[in-house]
Specification:
Phasin, Phasin_subfam-1, mainly alpha, 3 helices, single chain
């Protein structure tokens, strides 16, 4: 089973395109995560500075405690929102990379089947059974990859819903705790 120059060039070009797309996905996601972190850091610094100034102005200890409780609640809320945003970026990257892998595997399978069929045209007599076995193996491998991909997608969806439920529960618990803290 030999490949001609045109097939090799096509395979190489496909590999280069996949690599470039992977690099673009990685750079875009890194850029989004760095921007998210920088924005969160700037906002946190501004809020902590403002909170410190306000805290210095309180004359009553109870007012200061209430203010600290409020600031802490807001900080936890913002941390939960930040973790949601980070999770959304990571989840989006995972989805994009899954698509890239599925496309690459699909193209590889098509190329492999095309090569097998090309080889079959020039195969010696009596090799039909072997070629059919190879084709069946390739089809079984493609089906296994497809099944694995679907299972991974289901796990990702389950994880996504679990993370969203956990962050909502955390945010609700913080709000309830803050309400109890101010009423006590």
């Amino acid at each position: 089973m030999s490949l001609n120059n045109e097939q090799l060039n096509k395979l190489a070009l496909t590999g280069i395109e996949s690599s470039l797309r992977f690099a673009q996905i990685a750079l875009d996601s890194t850029e989004r995560l760095v921007k998210l972190q920088l924005d969160a850091s700037k906002q946190s610094l501004e809020e902590q500075t403002q909170a410190a100034k306000q805290l210095a102005g309180f004359k009553d200890a109870q007012e200061a405690v209430n203010h600290l409780s409020k600031v802490a609640t807001q900080a936890v809320d913002k941390a939960v929102n930040h973790s949601r945003n980070v999770y959304e970026v990571v989840s989006g990257v995972q989805s994009e990379l899954n698509k890239l892998v599925e496309e690459s595997v699909g193209l590889y399978n098509k190329s492999l089947i095309s090569s097998i069929e090309s080889f079959a045209k020039n195969a010696p007599a009596g090799s039909d059974a072997t070629l059919n076995a190879v084709k069946t193996s390739v089809a079984a491998a493609a089906a296994a990859v497809n099944t694995f991909s679907k299972a991974a997608q289901q796990v990702a969806e389950f994880t996504d819903s679990s993370v969203k439920a956990a962050t909502s529960a955390t945010a609700d618990a913080v709000k309830n705790s803050a309400k109890r803290g101010t009423t006590v």
